[in-house]
Structure formats: structure tokens, C-alpha cells
Design a protein that fits this description.
The structure is a single chain. The chain is α/β, with parallel strands linked by helices and 92 residues long. It contains 2 helices and 6 strands, in the order E-H-E-E-E-E-E-H. Helix 1 links the parallel strand 1 and strand 2. The longest helix is centred in the first third of the chain and has 11 residues. The two termini are 15 Å apart. 4% of the residues are buried.
């Protein structure tokens, strides 16, 4: 799996190091610096991931705008805001 977040690396790595401390779940970590900045915000372009075809990838995101370039690959999810009973990813 690849993690692609519109967050800054310093913020994302703190969380990802809790989820994946040995770096064996996510083969690649991509951050805001990998996104395209537009006047409306950041957009993820998963076509920059060269070792996978688009039809093999999905984007799970709480902001559909982030997925604007590949809407057919998008799976919207409810945002997480410190609700420790949140099970959205399990339902997914």
C-alpha cells in the first residue's frame, strides 16, 4: 500500500510512525509536496505512481476535491476528528 496525504510530512509521519512503525505496511509515503497546489487547495495525482496502473489504485479521502484528477478511483470517507470510537476504515 501507498499512503498519499495532503498533509505536511512532519505531521503525517508522527501518525504514520504509530500506525506503521517498521515501515512495512506502506511501501511509499507521499505528502503535500507530492500534490498539485491549485487556487482551491491541494489535489493528489496518483498517476505519478509509476509502478502501478490507475485501474489498480484507489484513493480513500475525506475531501473529494483532493481526488479531482481521478474521481473514478475515489472512495469518499467520513473525516476523523479525535473520535476514538471511529470505525470508518474498518467499515471500508
Amino acid at each position: 500500500m501507498v499512503i498519499f496525504t495532503a498533509s505536511d510530512r512532519c505531521y503525517a509521519d508522527v501518525i504514520l510512525d504509530i500506525i506503521d512503525p517498521k515501515h512495512d505496511i506502506f511501501s511509499l509515503r507521499m505528502y503535500r509536496t507530492h500534490c498539485i497546489l491549485t487556487e482551491h487547495g491541494y489535489i493528489k495525482d496518483i498517476s505519478i505512481i509509476k509502478n502501478r496502473s490507475l485501474d489498480e489504485m484507489v484513493i480513500v479521502d475525506n475531501n473529494i476535491f483532493n481526488c479531482a484528477l481521478q474521481l473514478d478511483n475515489a472512495i469518499p470517507i467520513n473525516p476523523f476528528y479525535c473520535n476514538y470510537e471511529d470505525k470508518e476504515l474498518l467499515y471500508l
